[in-house]
Amino acid sequence: MIVECLEAEFLGRRETNALKLIKQARFPTPHAHINDITYLTSRDITKPQMTSLAQCDWIETGRNVLLLSPTGAGKSYIAQALGIAACQKQYSVAFTRLKELDYQLQLADTDKEKYHRILARYKDVDLVILDDFFTTPISNQTAYDLFEIFVARTDAGRSTMIAAQSEPADWYQAFPTEISADSTLSRITTGATIIRLGTANMRDHYSIDND
Q1: pLDDT tens per residue, range 59-73
Q2: Domains by residue range for the chain, with CATH
């Protein structure tokens, strides 16, 4: 009886902490779940693959995951579902679109305390999820800030997940110099698990289902 009570208390605290981590991560879709991912023949992902990623071994070993697909393929939802799975495993997560991070850093440019607080958030959490990676241009300063963030994360063995419409080879042109591009992108792609989601347009798929 005592053991059962202790187990219930432990699980309750774990669930409470997971909900707190999900809120702190700032997911646009906080109810996203891997059980709700749709698998189609034109979508190059499998349920065993997603279930394995949801176990978060890649976070434990400090590896990165890249989700690549054209617009409408549902990579943002998958990224959030895997991020929420990480929160449920008690990992801290920060989710943002790259352009939003660019905007935050530019706004904080004259407030050094806020600026360093933003950088610290993305350096220190167990998992950073960057959505819409280089879908739109960012400032040169933010490109340098990305380098600083990835240096800190790589040195600490922390994982990053990136959701992007373009291939890594296309990201080089977004950086102000070839050196900063090589230094940043090598830290992102080396040893990363790259998942290409195929050509299925999930917006069209769900629109047809709802007709």
Answers
A1: 999 999 999 998 888
A2: 2-210 (3.40.50.300)
